[in-house]
Amino acid sequence: MKFRFIKKPTERRTFIINSVDVKSWSLAAKNDKIILQTVIFWLGGILFSLLIVILFFNAIPNEVPLFYSRANGFDQLAKKTYLLLLPGGAFALGLINLCFILISYKKEKIISYTFCSITVLITILSTLSLLNIIHLIT
């Protein structure tokens, strides 16, 4: 019985696709004005939402009407700490969209700009929802 020695692969396996380079991602984000404005608006909206929650946290009752899709009554109510789901969800979706923006930037800029507008729309809707909830309960 003979043993064969298997050669180790010389290529390094990476998590990121070989055609996509992290340096090109950062250059796209820095050089394209629309992507830069989207990131600034996205992070600014999240910080504004967090600031609103922190400022009104003591004035908010223990239960807030957060889940509008449920039946009227107690099913809609959630603890006031659940208000952090809105900026947290906007952050998570914006981060996912930012990855799609940077990956698709070299191939199709229109797809990147579409993801930029989706990110801005998510930020606006989550901030307006938070402001509406706080306006209703205070």
Summarize the structure in words.
By secondary structure, the protein is mostly helical. Helix content is 60%, strand content 4%. Strands 1-2 form a two-stranded antiparallel sheet. Helix 2 packs antiparallel against helix 3, helix 2 packs parallel to helix 4 and helix 3 runs antiparallel to helix 4. It is extended and about 65 Å long. The protein starts with 21 loop residues before the first helix and ends with a helix.
Estimate the helix proportion, in percent.
55-70%
State Rg: 22 Å
- Helices and strands, in order, run as HHEEHH
Low-confidence stretches: none
What is the molecular shape? extended
Distance between the termini: 81 Å
Query: What's the rounded overall pLDDT mean?
Result: 83
Strand content: under 5%
The largest β sheet comes out as: 2 strands, antiparallel
Q: What is the helix tally?
A: 4
Protein structure class? mainly alpha
Q: Report the count of strand segments.
A: 2
- Give the strand line-up of the largest sheet: 1-2
Provide a short characterization of the protein structure.
With 138 residues, the chain is mostly helical. Helix content is 60%, strand content 4%.
Give the secondary structure arrangement, pairings included.
Blueprint: H1 22-31, H2 33-56, E1 63-65, E2 77-79, H3 85-104, H4 109-137
